[in-house]
Design a protein that fits this description.
Helix content: 25-40%
Shape: globular
Radius of gyration: 20 Å
Largest sheet: 7 strands, mixed
Number of strands: 9
Structural class: alpha/beta
Distance between the termini: 37 Å
Number of helices: 6
Strand order of the largest sheet: 3-9-8-7-6-4-5
C-alpha cells in the first residue's frame, strides 16, 4: 500500500514515485520526462552504429563503457549451477577481467587462458578451455595491447557447440576489421566509439 504522503505519476513507460509534493518531486518527474525525450535519438544513433556491423535494427543499447556493457550481460546470468565457468584470456581488457573476477562471489569459476608471448592468444588452448561447464566466453576481437586479431568465428562456433554464450568486445575492431555480427552469430557484441559511450548488441 502506498503511504498517503507518496504519490505516483505515470507517463508512457516511465513511472515516478515521489515523497510529498515539493519542488524536488516536480524536478524528478521533469528529469524522467527528459530521459524519454533523449531515448529516441539514442535508439536512432544505436541503429546507425549497428549498420557498421550489420546488427539488426532495435538491437543496440547504449551504456557508459565496455565494463558496464559486460555487467549488464552478467546480470542476466546464473552462476549457481554446474555451468558456471567463465573463459577468457589474460590479454583481455583489464577492467573487464576485474569485473568477471568479481563474479566469483556469485559462484562464477574463472578460467584464464595465458598468452605465451604477450602478443597472441593460443587459439587451440582457448578452444580446449571451452567445455560443457562453460557459461560465457567474454573475449576481445582485437587485443588492445598488441592488435592481434582473434579468430572470433572459431571461438563462437566452439562455444555454441557446447552451449556457451560469447561476449565479443569489438572496441578495436569496428571500423578497422570488417565483420558481421549476424554472420558470426555472436550472442553479445559491444564497442566503444567515443569517450565514455558504449554500444551493446544482442
Amino acid at each position: 500500500k502506498v503511504p498517503v504522503n507518496e504519490r505516483e505519476e505515470e507517463r508512457g513507460d516511465v513511472v515516478a514515485v515521489g515523497v510529498g509534493v515539493g519542488e524536488d518531486d516536480q524536478l524528478a518527474v521533469a528529469q524522467l520526462r527528459q530521459l524519454e525525450v533523449l531515448a529516441e535519438p539514442a535508439a536512432d544513433s544505436g541503429d546507425e552504429i549497428g549498420e557498421l556491423m550489420n546488427a539488426p535494427k532495435g538491437s543496440i543499447a547504449i551504456h557508459q563503457n565496455v565494463t558496464t556493457c559486460e555487467a549488464v550481460i552478467a546480470s542476466c546470468l546464473d552462476f549457481s549451477g554446474k555451468r558456471n565457468k567463465v573463459v577468457y584470456d589474460d590479454m583481455n581488457f583489464p577492467s573487464v577481467m576485474y569485473f568477471w573476477e568479481g563474479q566469483k562471489a556469485l559462484g562464477a569459476r574463472i578460467h584464464m587462458v595465458k598468452t605465451d608471448d604477450g602478443v597472441t592468444v593460443p587459439l587451440q588452448r582457448l578452444l580446449d578451455a571451452i567445455d560443457e561447464e562453460t557459461l560465457v566466453v567474454p573475449i576481445s576481437h582485437v587485443l588492445f595491447r598488441s592488435s592481434f586479431i582473434q579468430d572470433a568465428k572459431a571461438i563462437i562456433e566452439k562455444a555454441h557447440k557446447v552451449g556457451a554464450l560469447v561476449v565479443l568486445d569489438c572496441f578495436h575492431s569496428l571500423g578497422t576489421v570488417p565483420f558481421d555480427v549476424q554472420e558470426l552469430n555472436v550472442d553479445f557484441d559491444h564497442v566503444t566509439l567515443i569517450s565514455n559511450t558504449s554500444y551493446l548488441t544482442r
